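Collaborator request, handled under Task 6.
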Amino acid sequence: MSAALPAVGTSALLERLTTFVPDDFINTRWPVLPRRGPRWRFSAAQLWRVHLLALLSGGRSFNSIQRSLSEQRSLRRFAHLPNERTIPDVRMLHEFRQRIGVSGFRAINDYLSGQVLQSAPLREKTVALIDATDLPARTQDKKKRAGTGVPRGPRWERGH
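Structure tokens returned to the collaborator:
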């Protein structure tokens, strides 16, 4: 097995990565709830694979991914979608994200990390994986301000 992966957005990358997706884990953890009506129901693994396509295909939005699914057979094959007429819409993807939440995506990530670490050829050296999802963002309100606590500038320019 070569170390280099195919380029992002290619069908070769999707074919290479499709075996790593834990469909059974996802479907048993978040089973499809039976609903009334004629609407097509997708499994949790299919919806997660469509979300993964947003990263692997270079799509800029879920609307563009939905359009691409109806046009490109390799994307539908990766997402295990039977044909171009039965693809999830943006509302279904939104409901799926709400249903599994951040903890669900983190559970899938942890499961995948465990699978990678079990199959990785580890030696005597230590391996560390950094997860930065819990780090606070560097925004203006989080920056430290140097000073003595005395406001600077003329009094008429200071806000209340």
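The cover message to the collaborator said: "The mean pLDDT is 79. DSSP finds six helices and no strands in the chain. Please let us know whether this matches your experimental observations."
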